[in-house]
Amino acid sequence: MGNGFLVEIKGQPTNKKQRTKNNEQRTKNKEQKTKNKKQKTIMSTWKSFEEIEVWQLARQFCQDIFNIMQYEGLKTDFALKDQINRSSGSIMDNIAEGFGRDGTKEFVNFLSIAKGSANESRSQLHRILDRKYISDSEHKALCNKALEIANKIGGLIAYLKKSNYRGIKFR
After folding, report:
1. Taking the alpha carbons of 94, 46, 51, 157 in that order, is the dihedral positive or negative?
2. What CA dihedral angle connects 138, 75, 88 and 45, to 10 degrees?
3. Can you give the pLDDT at residue 20?
4. What is the CB neighbour count within 10 angstroms for residue 122?
5. How many of the other CB atoms lie within 10 Å of CB of 58?
């Protein structure tokens, strides 16, 4: 036992550094398999776009925009009213359309358009404030919602770009 001889076990290196390196590689492989499995699990848990949190937020934001469209001044500013109605609706619509394409690359593309629409809506809210159609507090609350949506879309884009999942049409 204590005689200092190393016994080579079939398939196992006798060098301590090599054994450590092999163990580290096995651990990395297991971690990558777990990560890949989690990514597939997360993506496969969405059965419809209505289950996606950022779509739900975009839907609520669209309703909030509709509510301010009923205000006296904005109600008669047809161009601005129609433009913010279209851009706020475009956020949720592009998330839904991208999800329906069944491919990660296409979904990311549509999410990028949705993010742009969130920022467009925020810009229009500045114009609405400047024309005194809404209060400072309403403006701040709505701009914060639009920014939150844009940031969450950005996070989803980053997640999808890192994912190995390509979409159900590539199975």
Report:
1. negative
2. 80
3. 72
4. 20
5. 29
Distance CA 111, CA 28 (A): 32
DSSP for 141-166 reads HHHHHHHHHHHHHHHHHHHHHH----
CA distance 66 to 120: 16
Domain boundaries, the chain: 46-170
Which residues lie closer than 8 Å to 117 by C-beta, 6 or more apart?
87, 88, 90, 91, 94
Task: State how far the Cα of 127 lies from the Cα of 109, in Å rounded to an integer.
Answer: 28
Report mean pLDDT in 10-residue bins for the chain, 171 residues: 49 66 74 57 73 98 98 96 98 96 92 98 98 98 98 96 74 56
Cα torsion 127, 128, 134, 137: sign? negative
30 within 8 A of 36, measured Cβ to Cβ? no
Q: By the 8 A CB rule, do 103 and 170 touch? A: yes
d(CA 97, CA 101): 7
Architecture of the domain whose range is 46-170: Up-down Bundle (1.20)
